[in-house]
């Protein structure tokens, strides 16, 4: 046996490329054309017609393969995917409420919008928080300025918390509910996500009023399929340590607690959209 006839040790045969076996890769354009006309000369017209789809598919297959395997094509696909992900990211939040979210009695640095944004940034979320709350606002006042507030450019999410001043003024719960419903519809028409923050009426307003008022927020959340914070002031209300001297509005410590409550549901909503 000649040396050249000996099988090479440690080498295995390259794997068979089944795609190339079934569809041999086209040669140069000139050879392809010459071979095509050579085949045309020696086959019948009927056979030629039947073979045309095969030639066409063969051409499309290999050109498409070259495009798909090119680096520039892959990079473009990655960029498109990243842009699509970014398009659905939450980047701007508007706090739409009354003095409880506006930072009544606090410095700007200790107000809820500032504290919330700082805490979100500390967790790695690049989200801008806009103060769209007005002290003393009722649900009716919120409805009157909703169209203007919701035109804030690139707003992705609003946290809606109105109704506390309605309760203090004894406004009928049905009226409050109707106003909030209209605000929610306006936001959804603009494709803006909504988190509804609820309030709870004290027993001093009477059992009937309290029952109707407390149902407003869960009913709306269920109807419009939006996220709900049952009670914005959970862990803060009625605790002197977390409220200003008026016993109603949160102080710096209370604001931190409310911010943590909002952060959890904002991050949950953010992760859903991404």
Q: In sequence order, what are the helices and strands, one letter per element? A: HHHHEHHEHEHHEHEH
**pLDDT averaged over residues:** 82
Helix content: 40-55%
Shape verdict: elongated
- Assess the beta-strand content as a share of residues: 5-15%
- Structure class: alpha/beta
Quaternary structure of the protein: single chain
CATH class of the largest domain: Alpha Beta
CATH architecture of the largest domain: 3-Layer(aba) Sandwich
Query: How are the strands of the biggest sheet laid out side by side?
Result: 2-1-3-4-5
Overall structural domain count: 2
Total number of helices: 11
C-alpha termini separation: 67 Å
CATH superfamily of the largest domain: SGNH hydrolase
CATH fold-level assignment of the largest domain: Rossmann fold
Could you give a short account of the major beta sheet?
Answer: 5 strands, parallel
- Rg: 33 Å
Verbal overview:
It is built from eleven helices and five strands. It has helices at 18-22, 29-42, 45-69, 71-87, 99-102, 112-122, 139-149, 164-169, 173-189, 207-224, 252-273, and strands spanning 92-97, 128-131, 157-161, 193-197, 227-229. The protein has a five-stranded parallel β-sheet with strand order 2-1-3-4-5, sandwiched between helices. Helix 6 packs across helix 11, helix 7 packs parallel to helix 9 and helix 9 runs parallel beside helix 10. The protein starts with 17 loop residues before the first helix and ends with a helix.
């Amino acid at each position: 046996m000649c040396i050249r006839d000996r099988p090479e040790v440690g080498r295995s045969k390259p794997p068979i490329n089944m795609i190339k076996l079934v569809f041999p890769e086209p040669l140069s354009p000139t050879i392809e054309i010459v071979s095509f006309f050579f085949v045309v000369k020696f086959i019948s017209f009927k056979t030629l017609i039947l073979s045309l789809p095969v030639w066409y598919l063969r051409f499309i297959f290999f050109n498409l393969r070259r495009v798909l395997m090119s680096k520039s094509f892959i990079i473009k696909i990655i960029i498109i995917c990243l842009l699509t992900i970014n398009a659905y990211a939450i980047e701007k939040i508007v706090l739409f409420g009354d003095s409880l979210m506006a930072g009544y009695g606090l410095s700007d640095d200790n107000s809820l919008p500032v504290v919330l944004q700082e805490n979100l940034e500390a967790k790695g979320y690049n989200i801008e928080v806009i103060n769209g709350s007005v002290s003393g606002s009722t649900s009716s006042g919120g409805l009157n300025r909703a169209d203007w507030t919701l035109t804030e450019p690139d707003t992705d999410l609003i946290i809606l918390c109105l109704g506390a001043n309605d309760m203090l003024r004894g406004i009928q719960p049905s009226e409050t509910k109707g106003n909030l419903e209209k605000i929610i519809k306006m936001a959804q028409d603009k494709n803006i996500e909504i988190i509804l923050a609820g309030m709870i009426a004290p027993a001093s307003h009477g059992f009937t009023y309290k029952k109707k008022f407390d149902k407003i927020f869960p009913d709306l959340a269920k109807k419009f399929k939006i996220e709900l914070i049952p009670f914005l002031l959970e862990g803060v209300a009625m605790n002197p340590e977390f409220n200003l001297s008026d016993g109603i509005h949160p102080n710096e410590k209370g604001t931190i607690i409310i911010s943590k409550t909002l952060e959890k549901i904002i991050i949950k909503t953010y992760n859903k959209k991404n």
